[in-house]
Amino acid sequence: MAEKFREQGVVLSNGQIGTGIFDLKLKTDKIAAAAKPGQFVSIYSNDKSRLLPRPISICGADSETGELRLTFRVAGKGTEEFSRLAAGEKVDLVGPLGNGFPLERAFATDDSRNCADRDGAAESVGVKGRRVFLIGGGIGIPPMVQLAKTLTERAQAAGDTAASAGSPETFQASAGSQAAGANAVGFQAAPFITSVLGFRDELFLVDDLKPYGDVVIATEDGSCGTKGNVLDAIREKNLKADVIYACGPTPMLRALKKYAEETGTECWLSLEEKMACGIGACLSCVCRSTEVDGHSKVKNKRVCTEGPVFRSTDIEL
Amino acid sequence: MKMEDDAMPDMSVEIAGVRLKNPVMTASGTFGSGQEFSEFIDLNRLGAVVTKGVASVPWPGNPTPRICETPSGMLNAIGLQNPGVETFRERDLKFLEQFDTRVVVNVCGHSVAEYVDCVEKLADAKRADLLEINISCPNVKEGGIAFGTDPRGVEEITAAIKKAAKQPVIMKLSPNVTDIAEIARAAEAGGADGLSMINTITGMKIDIRRRTYALANRTGGLSGPAIHPIAVRMVYQCAQAVNIPIIGMGGITDAESALEMIMAGATAVSVGTANFHDQTTTLRVVEGIRDYMEQYHVESIRDLIGCVR
Questions:
Q1: Domain CATH for A31
Q2: Cα–Cα distance between A189 and A158 in angstroms, integer?
Q3: Are residues A89 and A109 in the same domain?
Q4: Closest CA to A45 of B194, B99, B254, B69
C-alpha cells in the first residue's frame, strides 16, 4: 500500500483560470514527491463547521520542489473557501490517495498491431509506440496534465537509457521482452499522446497539454474545435488509440466505456464520488463493479481505494 | 506534561466485566476495522476498536450518493454494506489480533434470526470482546431501526441475542424515538449488558442545484457535532433510568465533548464522524482527557462517570 501523509500545505499561489475554475499551488513536505498521475488529495476546510475533506485530483506534482498543483471548480461552500486561499495561508491535506493511472499500459508492446500508418520518428528505430488518448471532460482535465507530463518524462528517460545502451537492435529486442512490467519502462517505446479535451464553452489548461502531443478540442457550443463532445471530436477526426485514459463527468465516461467496448480499445476511467473518509473506511464512495470485489465481497468497489482509476470493463456506469 | 508512570491518572474503565485501558473507542461505521486508520494512528492506544456493522452474509448497501455534508455534521445512508461475518472473522478480526486493544464487534441483521445467526457465528471468535447490536440503523428498510423503536421489540430481540451470544451484549439505541429511557429500560429488561447511544438522527438534505435529494436514499442519519447536545441529554436520561453501563457517542470531537458525555453518565465514549475530519481525533481525545485529569487532580476516570446528576 502506498504511503499516505497528513500535512499542512502552504499556499504558494492561487489564481482563477476560468469561470469558477481555480489553480491552487501548494508547498508540501511529502505529498507532491509521492504523488502519481491520477491520484488525489483530501483537502480540509479551515472552517471547522465543514467536517469532510474535499477530494481533488492532482494536476501537477513536483517531487523536487514539493509543489502540488490542484486545479478545481467551485462546486459548493468548501471549494468556494479554497478559491479564496491566499499565498502564505495553510490548509490541511491528506494524500496522495487512491491509485493512479497505470502508466505502464502506455508503454506496453503490441506486436500484432500494424504500424504502417505511423510517422517517421518511431519507425526509424523500429519501435511501435502506443497511441494514447488522454481524454478530459471539463474539470476532469487537470489529472491529464500530470499524466501527460509523466508519460513524456518516462519516455524520455527510456530513450536516454536506450541511447546509452547501444544500438537500435538492442533497444528493439528489449522492448519486445518487456511487456507491461509495472515499473519496467526502461527500454520501451515512447507513446504517441493525443489529448482530447471537452469543454462547455470556455477553454482552460489547453496550453498545459500542448507540449506533450496533439490537442483536440470539443466544445458544446462549437466556439472552438468540434461542436459536441469528446467522442464527436474523435469520430470527426477519425482518431484511433491503443489505450485510453479518461476523467470527466459520468455521461462522458459511460460513452467512453461503450466506445472502448465497441472498438476493442483498452480504456481506463477515473471516477468521482462523494467521499467522507477518503481512505477506504467509510464505504461512502463505492461504484458498481462487474464482478464481486475481493474487499467488499459484493459488486462494489471503493473509488477512493480500489480507484479512482478503473479498467472500463471492471465497472458499471 | 511530565509525570511519573505511577502518578499517571487511572483512565481504565470496565464494561460488562471487560476492562478498557481508557474510555475512548471508535464509533461503528466510521473506522472500518481499523486497518485504514492504522496508517495514521497507533491502535494500541485506543480503549477499543468498534468495527463496522457486520451481518451473517455480505450486504451490498445503498446506491450513491451515500453521504453529504451538513453544518457541523453529515448525513449518511451507507446501508450497512459489509462483507459478511465469514470474511470479517478471517480478515478483519485476524488483523486486529496484533493490537493490544479491545474489540467490539457491531452486528446488524434484517430479522431476529439473522442477528442470532451472526452472533452465533461469532461465538468462538476470541478476538471479539464485546458485541454491539445495531437495532437503530435508519438507512435499511428491514431490521435496523425497525427493532429499535418499540420497547417490546427491543426487549424481545435483546433476549434472543443474549441467549445466543457468548460475549457480553451492548444494544445500540436509536435517538429517533419519543422516550429513549423507555427503550433503554426495555433493553435492560431483555438482559443487555450495556447500551451504546446514540445512533444517527434521521435527516434530509435537498440539493437545490439538482432539485432533488442529496442522498440517493432520500434520508440519512445525521452525525457530528450538530447532534452532540442531543446525545448528551439522552445519555443523561438513560443513565438515570438503567443500571447497566452506557457507551456515549454523537459528535465527540475533543476531550471536552467526551468529558461531557462521561459526566452525563457514559462509562466510555465513541468517536465517529470526527475521524473523517482528523484521523488522529481518538488519540487527541485520550490525551485531552488525561490532561484534564492531571489539571484537576482526578485520580480515576471512574470518579467522573455520571458525576453530573
A1: 2.40.30.10
A2: 8
A3: no
A4: B69
B108, B118, B137, B238: which is the annotated catalytic residue? B137
Residue B202, chain A, CB below 8 Å: the answer is no
User: Which domain range does residue A165 map to?
Assistant: 103-270
Return d(Cα B172, Cα B178) in angstroms, integer.
16
Q: Does B60 sit within 8 Å of A282, measured CB to CB? A: no
Task: Kindly report, residue by residue over A204-248, the tens digit of the pLDDT.
Answer: 999 999 999 999 999 999 999 999 999 999 999 999 999 999 999
Provide the percentage of residues in chain B whose pLDDT is more than 90: 92
Q: What is the pLDDT of residues A120-132, one digit of tens each?
A: 444 434 457 899 9
> For B181-200, how does the pLDDT look when each residue is reduced to its tens digit (9 = 90+)?
999 999 999 999 999 999 99
Distance CA B146, CA B112 (A): 11
Look up B137 and say whether it is catalytic: yes
pLDDT at A1: 55
Residue A1's closest chain B neighbor by CA? B39
Contact B47, B102 (CB under 8 A): yes
Based on the structure, what is the number of domains in chain B? 1
C-alpha cell at position A139: 474539470
Q: Extract the C-alpha cell encoding A8.
A: 499542512
For residue A108, name the pLDDT band (cuts at 50, 70, 90): confident
CA nearest neighbour of B54 among B104, B100, B102, B99:
B104
Q: Tell whether A67 and A193 lie within a shared domain.
A: no
